[in-house]
Structure formats: structure tokens, C-alpha cells
Amino acid sequence: QYKFRDLTIEELKNVSKTYPNFTFSMNTYTFKDGSQKDLLNFSGTVPVKYGNSYNIPIQLWILDSHPFAPPICFLKPTANMGISVGKHVDAHGRIYLPYLQNWSHPKSTVTGLIKEMIAKFEEELPLYSLSSSDAARQSELLSYIAKITEGETDMKSRSKIGGKNEGCFNKITVVGAGDLGIACVLAVAAKGVADKVILLDLSEGAAKGGTMDLEIFALPNVGISRDFSASADSKVVVVTVNSLGNAQTYLDVIQSNVDLFKGIIPAISHYSQNAVLLVASHPVEVMTYVAWRLSAFPKNRVIGVGANLDSERFQYILTNLLKAEVLAKDAWVIGEQGEDKVSSWTSYNLAANQMEGMAARNSREKAANRAMEVLKGKGQRSWSVGLSVADLTDSILKDKRKVHSISTLAKGCCNINSEVFLSLPCILGTRGVIEMVKLEEDPLVQEKLQSSAGSIHDLQQQLKL
Known about the structure:
By secondary structure, the chain is α/β, with parallel strands linked by helices. It has 13 helices and 19 strands. It has a 6-stranded parallel β-sheet. A 4-stranded antiparallel β-sheet has the order 1-2-3-4. The longest helix is centred in the C-terminal third of the chain and has 23 residues, at 354-376. It holds the Pfam family Ldh_1_C. GO terms for molecular function: L-lactate dehydrogenase (NAD+) activity.
């Protein structure tokens, strides 16, 4: 079956010698198009130092054209582990590395791939332990859902006046019925944000999209459809779709998402011409840009979830865990998701004189650095992103004019001249972004934002829109 059997066996012997804990087997791999193939794969742990020492479980599938084609790589988290989505790992645990993208025999080897994997994981740990506090938050969400099913929220009462149903005032559509899409529906419904929530299931077959249980238990004010027309007149459209496939490079994965968006965004824009588009697809900065281009909406009405979740956590850590004597409401996580995010501030009034101001600034920066270290250990699970989406839609529909760190067009900010989306603190209302909040002028922060903008712009230039 393997075209270059001897070369493959020789290389796997080298892997076994370097990593004796790996186990080898033949299993069936399913590709994006549904085709299947029996492939050699091996599983084991790689040692990673990230403050402490960790053993990261991985699985590599060896294609039958190996060593002229790179392996397909996945994380294999245990039940008490969560995946930290980043530049090199997607929500499904698929691993993307420059080494894979630039694979070339005989220079490229599996042992060399694993060495780069370890190096990248030491920069950004791909897994985290599920804590008791995580479980508590999830329990809180489930209790809200229980209240909905018992009719204890005020969603029904708001949609009825004098006993007559006056129709939908605030309608939200969630596009994509994967784990993230369903988490968004449940969180939005639990928060009582909308009079009507439509889950647009684009999957093939009634049960594939994970919507069957929603149909069975029939949450109030939640509808499921496979027709774009059901989204008509939505005030907010949340896009959660992500491509699942066998793309070999990070660029290929993004291009697959772009191709998905080409069939979704124009249709959504047609039926809800005044909606705010809220993008949660990965990578959020690039996909928000794609949604903006394909929708032809003004920039204020196309935003991404960005660093809203990180910022809320950051402020909570400063106030409740570190008990820091800083104005946490002025502290933000900005930039791009992943290892290149950075903390910043919107408050400038530190102290009356220069000496006191310097001391206050140093104290504040120490607290921020400690908070960012704590934040690194927090992953972004579907339900936590769903809660963040509910938070954003709440601010938009209720015109709260609350400040959130969301992905917005950054051109003109921090000397950025390209059309890229980065997370920046913005005031949100019914028309999306009302105003961008001015940040402190920190040369290091500006340099990091400009670097992120440059790399994102270079990536966007390679996409076929």
C-alpha cells in the first residue's frame, strides 16, 4: 500500500529510537470528502517545558506517499484537557507548522517535525487542564438553560404585549451548527438577549450538524433552519463555521474557510441588509476581513469576537485573583488572538507628579504581566466563546454603549496603513462600532500591533477572494 515502503520503515525506526514511548498501528483515516484509507499512525507524548514540564499527547498519520508528503498531525487531549486554539492548533486539535508547509524530502523528517512541534509548543502551550472553576461556569450556563426550558426567563413576556404575540423585535441568526454554533445559541438564549434565535444548519443530513437534540427538546424562541431566508431581518448574525478537512497547510485551511464564506456571507447580507456581522470563525482577524469584503457592509457593522473573552478574563484576574490596586476596567487585551496578543490601557491619569506616576506605572505593569501569565493557562472552549458572543450581542441589541475589545478595522490606528482587523477597545451599540477608544501611547505595544498587522496583511494577500 505504501509506495515508498522501505523509506517509510527506515524513518519510523528513527522515530522509535528517539521517542520509544510512541506506539504504532494501522487505522482508518477519513478525509474531508468522506473517503477513507487505512494509514499507519503513531501516538505518544512529547516533552514540553513551559514553566513546568509537560507531556503533550499527539498522533501523527503517515500518508501512503510518505516521505514525499508530510504527516497529518493532531493533538490527542485526555478527558481532563482542553485545546488552546492558536496559530499552530485549531479547535479540533489539528496541528499546523511551518515545517509541514515547507516539507521536502529528504531534508524533512518526522523527527525534525517533532522537534519543531516541541519548540512551538514551548512558545504557546497547546493544552490546558480543565479546572473546577471552568466546570462551575459550565454548570452555571446549564442552569440558565434549565430555567429557559421551565419558562422562567422573561423572553416570552417581552415578545407578548397584552397577551398577543407582536412578532420578533430582536432576532439573531447563528450560522453553523457545530459545537461553537450550538454553544452560541444556548448562551444567547440563556442570557435572554433576543426574542428569536435562528440556528442556520448548513450540514448535510438532519443529524450531522448536532441540531437533533435542539429539535427534540425544543427550546423556546429557538428555531432551526437550512434555508438562508430564515435569517431575514436579523439584527445580529453570528458566523461560526470552520472548514474541516485534510488541508496540508495553514494557508489551505484559511482558504477553505474563505471558500465557505463565499457561499454564506453574500446570502446573509442579502436577507439582513442592516445586520451587524459578528465573526467567530478561525482565524478571527482574517475571517472578519473576509466577511467585510464579501458583505460590502460598512466597517462599523462587521466585527469579530477578537479578544473580548481574554479582556473580560484579564480584568477579572486583576480584580478578583490578584487583588491588584489598578483600574481593571481600563485594562485590555488587544491585537490578534494567540501568542501575539498584548495588554494595554485606556486610562492615563496615574498620578499627579512624575515620580508617583512612574511608581504607579511600574506597579500596574507588574500586575498586568502576572495577569497575562495566569491568562495563558486559560483556553477558549466552545461554551466560553459562546458566553462571550452572548455578551457582545447583549451590548449591541440593547445599545449599551459598553466598551469591548473586538476585531475591528485597524487601518489608521497605531500607524497601521493596511486593511487588517485587530482587537481594539471599541464602544458597541445597535449599529456596531460607535467609536474606537483611545489607547495609551506605548511604543512597545504599537510595535507589536504593527508587527501583527504586517503578518496578517501578508497572509491576506495570498488568499483568493
